[in-house]
Design brief:
Layout: E1 4-9, E2 17-23, E3 26-33, E4 36-41, E5 56-57, E6 60-62, E7 69-71, E8 87-93, E9 96-100
Antiparallel strand pairs: 1-9, 2-3, 3-4, 4-8, 5-6, 6-7, 8-9
């Protein structure tokens, strides 16, 4: 059963950006898209690029190293749905961002 972890204050992640956090011994990328929050594994399966550092286009993040793209809501690659990263539930309560891992 997933455990809820407080990871950040909402002010730490500007809209349209991501930030990496260590949660339950995993590197998790947390993204703020307008008023929605998403969390996925921070490591691109291609060559290990840090997804939290990648540019966002809507609800899709591109790996900053080689451009592989992943849907934030599902963790699936936009080009090959068989390739994916884990996706986690993210939410805000008050001014605290939580991730369930």
């Amino acid at each position: 059963m997933p455990t809820r972890h407080a990871v950040a204050d909402v002010s730490e992640i500007p809209a349209g950006r991501g930030k990496s956090f260590e949660v339950a011994d995993r590197q998790i990328a947390v993204f703020r898209v307008a008023d929605r929050w998403h969390a996925i594994d921070n490591t691109c399966p291609h060559r290990g690029g840090p997804l939290a550092d990648g540019p966002l286009l809507g609800d899709v993040v591109s790996c900053p190293w080689h451009g592989w793209q992943f849907e934030l809501a599902t963790g699936k690659s936009t080009r090959n749905p068989a390739v994916c990263v884990s996706q986690y539930s993210a939410s805000v309560e008050g001014s605290t961002v939580y991730v369930e891992v």
